Amino acid sequence: MDLLEYQGKQLFGKHGLAVSDGKPVTTVEDAVAAANEIGYPVVVKAQVLIGGRGKAGGVKLAANEDEAREHATNILGLDIKGHITRTVWIEHASDIDTEYYASILLDRSAKKPLLMFSIEGGVEIETVAEETPEKLIKHHIDPLVGLTKEEAVKVATDGKAADDVIEGVADALVALYEVWIEEDASLAEINPLIVTPDRQVKALDAKVTLDDNAAFRHPDHADLGDSANADPIEVKAAEQGVTYVKLDGDIGILGNGAGLVMSTLDVVAQHGGTPANFLDAGGGSDAEKVKQAVELILANDNVKAVLFNIFGGITRCDEVANGLVSAFNDLKPTVPFVVRLDGTNDVQGREILEKAALPNVHAATTMDGAAEQVVALAKGA
Amino acid sequence: MSILIDENTKLAVAGITGREGSFHTLNNRAYGTNVVGGINPKKAGENVEGIPVFADWKTTVAETGANTAMIFVPPPFAAASALEAAQAGVELVVIITEGIPAHDELKLYNQVKRDHPGTRIIGPNCPGLLSPGKANVGIIPASFFKPGNVGVVSRSGTLTYQIGNELAQKGFGNSSIVGIGGDPVPGSSFVDVIELFEKDPQTELIVMSGEIGGSAEEEAAEYIAANVTKPVVGYIAGFTAPEGKQMGHAGAIVSGSAGTAKAKAEALEAKGVRVGRTPTQTAEIAMEILGAPTAA
User: Fold this and answer.
1) Distance from CA of B235 to the nearest CA of A (A)
2) Which A-chain residues 173-212 have CB contacts (< 8 A) with chain B?
3) DSSP string, B128-176
4) DSSP letter, residue B229
5) Nearest CB to A245; choose among B99, B104, B247
């Protein structure tokens, strides 16, 4: 789950990383009240999960109440690349002497957390990595030990941070690792990490991604993210424990197992079709789960035909068939279905479907054949 | 020969008393796998259709000589159970559980590597392994596969079955099928398993099935070019996946321009590995390379 800037900053603050005082607000009146309370000048920042906020007019400096009101009015509701701004973060404007960069992410190749630090902050870090790689310090952290202060000092020193802020930067890096490890983040990035004229080190922005698999041990994370801008079908799917990703096409796809579903999307595309979604019904799908999944697929009005591609391992094909029959009884879909069942209990599954004689359901035996058939049906619909 | 599991496998299962755990354990036993025990601290002393249940891994290994562990316990406890199996000296730990926090996997990987180098982990979030005719550890539907000369290694469970089944339809059998799982920190990578297939005399061709996210396929491409004499055929899923969206598997995500299916396929092809565009085409390439199927 990606966090909004202010949510990331609140986590930073919790772990002792310095951030400016601020408040998230959703109305102009609250924005003005917050700005008056915090004290001018303030920055009014759109809270959306997309880059380029500044260029889109989503970040403005306000010197007084009138300006705060004007900016909040303009930014609340602002559409930034398809993301509607519903919340603005009002924070006290910081004086900036220097802009650094710091991040921690999971290096899947090294199988260790990777700390990156650069004194070239405030710009795209990819550009720094490409053009001046010597200015990007990369340091692998031993997850069994954690990031020690000594290591952090070395990273700050190697990165050529100003002498009088080595301590401050090192403390910020240690705090950033604490955020990463204790909040179960997969990414914690500060760009820029600023040095103020009075030599304080502060996070001016926050980009944090949390591991959804760790949600069970972080009940306080439940309200984070930007669910207001999420696709409603994706939100409902997540509540049901099903992985659904909305796509642009017109062929609804259900499969079991992420790899098989990805492959099914590819094969449908190769046959000239366009998938409307990715839906992994998951291992051990029972009849109820399958019915819910059909409901999710059909909630997308673009869907003209549906492909079920099941290869049973932990999933039992008879359960899938029962779910489909029950879905047809309740939902009475009007679009054609192509169903391919193979694997555990496939014979029983096919028997169930044959007996039920569902309207407009076509059985297929191979994945390629199923894809070809569903593309033809979608085009004919 | 086969790799990792065979007639000498002595399997014990953590989570044997759960719905899925018992279903698949009994399936594994019915296939001929020697299942020697199970673990559930609350049900020690009981049995699952004759399979004794113990309180912990240490006791299980002491009582049964188990050399292979299968982990079926829920995500919050799975990494701890896997570590306990490694501490008890189990050589092969297969983690089926999906949804384990990435940090738990990260710590497990590093701790086993540091303190228990004799233990190999397969998974998490994987379908397990099958050495046709010898042993089945996990949830792979074994009836589709027969013994043969093709080794399969895959990040996806169901895609493993799909490709294995395509090969079977062409008349090929398998030495072993290994699902390494779709999580960000797998215990074993493509390289680890391909190294074993290279050494296995039964294996004459290796099929590797990858997907978007990470760089394991690119690393495998480098390794194959430098170290593998046997033909390798690749498949990559996720050509149509949009950037920044997690496609089911926690590890299947295109980040910016990194981890795309196209880049992976190109990395493999640049090193002389042929890559099928569909599971069917992948099997066809394998057939073309091997000629007529031969039974092992």
Assistant:
1) 10
2) 181, 184, 186, 211-212
3) EEEETTTEEEES--GGG--EEEEEEEES-HHHHHHHHHHHHHTT--EEE
4) -
5) B247
For the domain covering A231-380, report its CATH number.
Answer: 3.40.50.261
Domains and CATH numbers, chain B: 10-122 (3.40.50.720), 145-290 (3.40.50.261)
By CA distance, what is B219's nearest residue in A?
Answer: A109
Contact B20 A247 (CB under 8 A): no
Could you tell me what percent of chain A has a pLDDT over 70? 98
pLDDT (tens digit, 9 = 90+) per residue, A268-287? 999 999 999 999 987 666 77
pLDDT in tens, A291-302: 899 999 999 999
| Four-way CATH pick for A21-92: 3.40.50.790, 2.40.40.20, 3.30.1490.20, 3.30.450.40 | 3.30.1490.20
Q: Write out pLDDT tens, residues A199-226.
A: 999 999 999 999 999 999 999 999 998 8
Interface of A with B in 338-357 (CB under 8 A): 342-344
Question: What is the SS3 assignment for A25?
Answer: strand
DSSP 8-state code for residue A275:
B
Query: Does position B294 have pLDDT exceeding 60, yes or no?
Result: no
pLDDT at residue B296 above 50?
no
- The ipTM assigned to this model is 0.92
A74 touches chain B (CB under 8 A): no
Chain A residue numbers touching B160 (CB-CB < 8 A): 259
Rounded to the nearest 10°, the torsion over CA B46, B51, B55, B58 is 160
- Output the six-digit token pair for B80: 């701890």
Domain A98-221 is in which class?
alpha beta
In the residue annotation, A189 being an active-site residue is answered as yes
Contact B237 A106 (CB under 8 A): no
Tallying the residues shown for chain A, one arrives at 381
CA-nearest residue to A146 within chain B is B107
